[in-house]
Design a protein that fits this description.
With 358 residues, the chain is of the alpha/beta class. Helices cover 46% and strands 19% of the residues. Strands 1, 2, 3, 4, 5, 6, 7, 8, 9 and 10 form a 10-stranded mixed beta sheet that branches. A two-stranded antiparallel sheet has the order 11-12. Strand 11 and strand 12 form a beta hairpin. The longest helix has 21 residues. The C terminus is likely disordered.
Length: 358
């Protein structure tokens, strides 16, 4: 039987616990790295530049990188021993596909004893030196908020284009419905209460394996309190061609779609979401996935989408789906139909972002 946490990581987590007993950090940063040599300095610089009136640490987990990632982490750990706390793996844990990395980081974050958790992977980076201070101040003053996030900019690594976020100037409170129907939370901007993360892990012990780990946590956090989104950009998300959410391969895209449906099914089973909201969310997922499942001829997913439309009497959406299957070149037309009108007998419902079930 495989150990829950390998001995190499456990020894380093014990060391982190000893160090944090002295530091007493209020915030622990969750940073996972693998072959991020080209980008990691930006991420680590974003951590150490933070200006706060409280101690914080960054737990940086290197998953047995084969480039110079580990050497860069060691360099920063030596220079900033009270901030950069590394975990070096001798064997890649992610490839086990058993949640090893998540368990290791959860143990390390709890060992740090921090009240809040922030996230930033090794290929992204923070740009606002006041990010942590602003977010902590808000959560400390608003106990009914479970987490906070912000706007971010996107850097397309292939061509160097930087897409700036549209800043409204107003703080936004995100509800569970908002996040379920249209997730606009970027992981690298999040600060969340550790208690909420631990409670989620108990809640989701039976959750199926998913390709993404963060989105379910945001959903759970929204059931425990308000979520605030700051209007300013605090970070840069680096868009890489083969990242988990932007992979170009057929397999990557289909794995992502299957995970989205698994998550929906899980939340439906838990019965913590109003039925009409789940129906809207299911429609969104079906509509956005249709083109890819037809393109890749995934018969299981095609049946899933077709059955959803038919079972819920979404007849025009179902007919548009059939039309796209027979003539993929008409996908622009079927997408237009789905976004604007769908009939559920005997009433008509107009679709703009989701089905409005009354």
């Amino acid at each position: 039987m495989k150990e829950e946490i390998n001995s190499t990581a456990k020894a380093q987590i014990d060391s982190i616990a000893t160090t944090c007993t002295k530091i007493k950090p209020l915030v622990a940063i969750n940073c996972i790295t693998y072959n991020h040599e080209k980008y990691l300095r930006d991420a680590l610089d974003g951590f150490v530049m933070q200006q706060t009136n409280f101690p914080f640490v960054a737990i940086v987990h290197d998953d047995a990188s084969t480039d110079g990632t580990a050497e860069i982490i060691r360099e920063y750990a030596e220079k900033y021993p009270d901030i950069i706390l590394p975990i070096f793996e001798t064997e890649n844990q992610y490839s086990n596909l058993d949640g090893s990395v998540s368990r290791i980081m959860n143990a390390a974050l709890n060992a740090a004893g921090a009240k809040y958790i922030a996230y930033c992977e090794g290929d992204d980076y923070w740009t606002d030196p006041q990010k942590l201070q602003k977010q902590v101040d808000i959560l400390e003053s608003n106990t009914d908020f479970s987490m906070i996030c912000s706007q971010y900019d996107a850097l397309f690594q292939e061509n160097g284009d930087m897409v700036k976020s549209i800043q409204s100037g107003k703080e936004e409170v995100l509800s569970l419905d908002n996040i379920l129907l249209n997730n606009k939370i970027a992981t690298l901007t999040v600060l969340i209460r550790l208690d909420c993360v631990n409670e989620y892990r108990l809640f989701a012990k039976d959750c199926p394996k998913l390709i993404f780990a963060d989105y379910p946590i945001w959903l759970f956090a929204a059931t425990k309190g308000h979520i605030m989104k700051l209007p300013q950009s605090t970070a840069v998300y680096r868009v890489l061609p083969q990242s988990a959410s932007h992979g170009l391969s057929k397999e990557s895209r289909l794995r992502w779609i299957r995970s989205e449906f698994k998550l929906l099914d899980y939340w439906i089973e838990k019965q913590v979401i109003p039925k009409n909201v789940m129906l809207c969310a299911s429609f969104n997922r079906c509509s956005s996935a249709a083109r890819d499942v037809i393109k890749y001829n995934d018969l299981t997913l095609i049946k899933r989408i077709r059955d959803f439309y038919w079972t819920n009497h979404l007849y025009i959406a179902w007919l548009s789906f059939i039309m796209m299957m027979k003539c993929p070149k008409l996908s622009w037309l079927t997408n237009l139909i789905e976004k604007h009108i769908c009939i559920k007998s005997p009433k008509m419902y107009y679709l703009f972002n989701y089905v409005k079930i009354q």
